[in-house]
Amino acid sequence: NKAANLTQGFSEMNVELPGEFSNVENESKKMAIYKMDGPHRGFCLVINNVKFGRSLLERKGSHKDAEELERVFTWLGLDVRTYTDLTSQQIKDLMRTWQHVQDHKDRDCFICCILSHGESGAIYGKDEELVSIRMIMSHFTAEQCPQLAEKPKLFFIQACQGKEIQRPVYVEADARIPDLPSMQQSISPSESIPAEADFLLGMATIDGCVSFRHIQQGAWYIQALCSKLQLLVPRGEDILSILTEVNDDVGRRVDRWGTKKQMPQPAYTLRRKFIFPIPRDPPPSQQH
């Protein structure tokens, strides 16, 4: 406890640090958190792909995830827009549209949640064509979307990132049926994320693996994300602490046969802590 004694000694001696120094310290404290006090919190897009073409199964239970995300992010002050069953081209067009929305400049952040089937580093449109996650995110770099420069951009992806494994009936995997060859080599989440600052990519699963969705209760990852946001935002926790809790929650879950496990994985280039202001209303799970 030497350090504590030393600082105590200082305060008793009334030593004043040079003004310059204390400002630097204040500046660094200020820098530590993204500004979240603009007139509007931001837009949150939810893309929910449920029905596909021939070889991909319907993603039953996904509507529950989309509704839950809408409730939770609305509670957190975002303007949520939900889109259902988009083709790969519609997803690309949607990103282009939102990239050019001028209203971003009055907003603190941007969030995009995608619920679909997927492969390594990519998600499927309902036409069963792949769209690269990196390409989706690259629409919102500082260069491509100046209104969001230096503002945090969060992407949450509920999709498999690899092959399906044998599965029990009640838990489905968000992947293709097994006999189709994987289209590309594995891509790690950090390669899926643009090199620019201020991005966060929350993946439901590590690369090469399936992620699970209960056909009534929704996806393990999205359900855990929504419940941890409701629990921990009111406690002032930052997003990375919250996602660590989500990892723990999903990592403990297991299907009823005790054979299926899943580990989510965030990758990020955030430069500051991202902390949602605490909403005035109680979380949706407590509202009746």
Largest sheet: 6 strands, mixed
CATH topology: Rossmann fold
C-alpha Rg, in Å?
21 Å
Q: Provide the low-confidence segments as ranges.
A: 2-13, 164-170, 177-185
Roughly how much helix do the residues carry, as a percent range? 25-40%
**What is the number of strand segments?**
12
Overview of this structure, please?
This protein is α/β, with parallel strands linked by helices and 288 residues long. It has a single domain (41-273), classed as Rossmann fold (3-Layer(aba) Sandwich), CATH 3.40.50.1460. Helices cover 31% and strands 19% of the residues. The protein is built from 8 helices and 12 strands. The strands form 3 sheets. The protein has a 6-stranded mixed sheet. Strand 5 (122-124) and strand 6 (130-132) form a beta hairpin. The chain is globular and about 45 Å long. The chain starts with a helix and ends in a 20-residue tail after the last strand.
Question: What topology does this entry show?
Answer:
Blueprint: H1 2-13, H2 19-31, E1 40-48, H3 62-75, E2 78-84, H4 88-99, E3 107-115, E4 118-119, E5 122-124, E6 130-132, H5 133-138, E7 153-158, E8 171-173, H6 189-192, E9 199-203, E10 212-214, E11 218-219, H7 220-232, H8 239-252, E12 265-268
Parallel strand pairs: 1-2, 1-3, 3-7, 7-9
Antiparallel strand pairs: 4-5, 5-6, 8-10, 9-12, 10-11
Helix pairs in contact: 3-7, 7-8
Question: Main traits of this protein?
Answer:
31% helix; Rossmann fold; 288 residues; globular; alpha/beta; 12 strands
